[in-house]
Amino acid sequence: MMKIEADRTKCDGLGMCEAMAPDFFEVGDDGTVVVLDEQPGEEHRQDLSAAVDACPVLALKLRG
Ligand code: SF4
């Protein structure tokens, strides 16, 4: 199963991931990313890959 991992110590809160995949990422009140659904369905792989690749500080990973 696919899994999203976010390293909140790296996240700078600019929200590229949220802009690309708002159903899965949200920048929280503390200015770091919140993953809304850590185990998304396979049908979302393309959108999530694009969002992960868009992170300027490489804080996101897609496993599985
Ligand atoms: S794109 Fe990266 S740095 Fe920006 S909010 Fe998302 S995880 Fe954080």
From TrEMBL:
Q: What cofactor does this protein call for?
A: [3Fe-4S] cluster
Q: Which domain of life is it from?
A: Bacteria
Q: Does the keyword Membrane apply?
A: no
Task: Check the UniProt entry and state the signal peptide residues, or none.
Answer: none
Query: Is Transport a UniProt keyword of this protein?
Result: yes
GO molecular function ontology, one term from the record: metal ion binding
Q: Where are the transmembrane segments?
A: none
- What UniProt keywords are attached to this protein's entry? 3Fe-4S, Electron transport, Iron, Iron-sulfur, Metal-binding, Transport
Q: What is the protein name given in its UniProt record?
A: Ferredoxin
The species this protein belongs to is Amycolatopsis keratiniphila subsp. keratiniphila
